[in-house]
Amino acid sequence: MTKIINHSCQFCGKSKEDVEKLIVGDNASICNDCVHLCVNILADEKIKKFPGDKISVNPTVLKDYLDEYVIGQDEAKIALCVAVSQHFKRIYNPSKKIKLEKTNVLMLGPTGCGKTMLARKIAEYLDVPFAICDATGITEAGYVGDDVESILNRLIASADGDIDRAARGIVYIDEIDKIARKGENVSITRDVSGEGVQQALLKMIEGTIMRVPSTGKRKHPGSDMQEIDTEGILFICGGAFVGLDKIIEERTNKSSIGFTNHVKEQTENPNCYRLTTPKDIIKYGFIPEFVGRFGITVTVDELDISELVKILKEPKNSMIKQYQYIFELDHIDLEFDNSALQKIAEQAKALKTNARGLKNIIEKTLLPYQFDAQNLVARGLTKIVVNKDTIDGTPAVMVFDKKVKNEQK
Ligand SMILES: Nc1ncnc2c1ncn2[C@@H]1O[C@H](COP(=O)(O)OP(=O)(O)OP(=O)(O)O)[C@@H](O)[C@H]1O
Ligand SMILES: [Mg+2]
User: In a 10 Å sphere around its CB, with 0-12 CB exposed, 13-18 middle and 19+ buried, how is residue 216 labelled?
Assistant: First the structure.
C-alpha cells in the first residue's frame, strides 16, 4: 500500500506552513488547533454526560455494591435496587406509547438500621447528585423554616449548580414521619397539623416544574428564579414511624380476635413494619394523596446481635476498621477479640438504638486510650487488645515493647 503523506490538516484544511504543529499519521494528519478543539468538545461532553445515559442500572450489581457496606436488610435492598433501576429505565427511555408513571419510595423501619445509609450508598454508586434533608425543618411557604424549594436548592448545590444533572438526582427526605398530622400539636411558627407540609411536598414528589431561587436562599420578590423539572428526581422518604407498630398490631390482632374467641394475642413482632399497608400510614397521620405518591414501600428490619457483630467488623468501612486506623496513626495495633464484639453488640441491642449504639459503646471504651495514646507509645506500647471485660470497664490488655520499657527503667 502506498503511504499518503499529508501536508495539510484533514480537519480544517490548513497547510503545514499555516499552523504551529501538524501531527502526521500514516494515513491522516491533524493540526494543533483541531486537537484543541477536539479536547474541548470531549470536555463538554463529559459535563453533559449523565451516568444514566450509559448505565442502565443492573439491580443485582447495585445490590452487590450495597452488600459491601450495609449488613442484612436484604429485602429492603432488593426493593430499592429494583426501584432505582426502574426509575432509570423511566427517565432515560421515554416512550410515546407508554408513559411510565413516577414511582417514589417510602422507607420505614426502626432507628439506626440503615435507612439513611442505604440511600446514601445508592447515590454514591450511581454518581448522581444527592441531597439529604430533614422533614422536620420543612414548613409551608410563609412560615418560619425552610420552604420545600430549599430541598431542590440543596440538590442543585450538590450538582455544582448544574440544573440538568440535578434533575436526575436523588433526594432523601429523612424523618418523614414527623410531618404526620397531629391533632393536639399547636404552634404559631409551624403549620399546626403537618398536613400543610404534606400538601406542599405533594407536587414536587409527583413531578412538576418548580421554580427555585437561583441564589439558593429563601425566595423574595424580584429574585432570579430558575426552573427545575422534578419528574426525573427520585424521592426516597424515610422515617422510623415510632408507634406505627401499634397501629399494625391493633389491626392484625383485631382481625384475629374474631377467630380466636376473644383471646387477644399480643404478638410482639419487631419486624411488624413489614405488614404496613397504605391505610396504616394514613391512620398514622398522612393524607391519602401523599401516601398515594409512593408506589414502593420498603421496610428495614431490627438488627439482631449477629448482624450487629457483622456491622462492627465486616463492612468495607466498618467501625472497627476505622478505629484501628485511628490507633494505627499513633503506631498502636488495636485488636478486638470476638468476646468484645459480642459484648458491644449485646449492649447496643439492650439500648434499642440498633447500630447507632455501637459507636457510643466503642467510643466510651476507647476514650482513655485515645487520650493517653502518645504517652503510652513513648513508654513502648505497641498493641491494645480489647476483650469483653474491657467493654465493662476493666483495663484492656496492653502489650509493650520490652526494649523501650527496659531502657526507661
Ligand atoms: N445495616 C447496616 N449495616 C451497616 N451499618 C449500619 C447498618 N445500619 C446502621 N448502620 C450504621 O449505623 C449508622 C446509622 O444508620 P442510619 O443513619 O442509616 O440509620 P437510620 O435507619 O437512618 O436511622 P434513623 O431512623 O434514626 O434516621 C450508620 O452510619 C452505619 O454506621
Ligand atoms: Mg436516618
Answer: middle
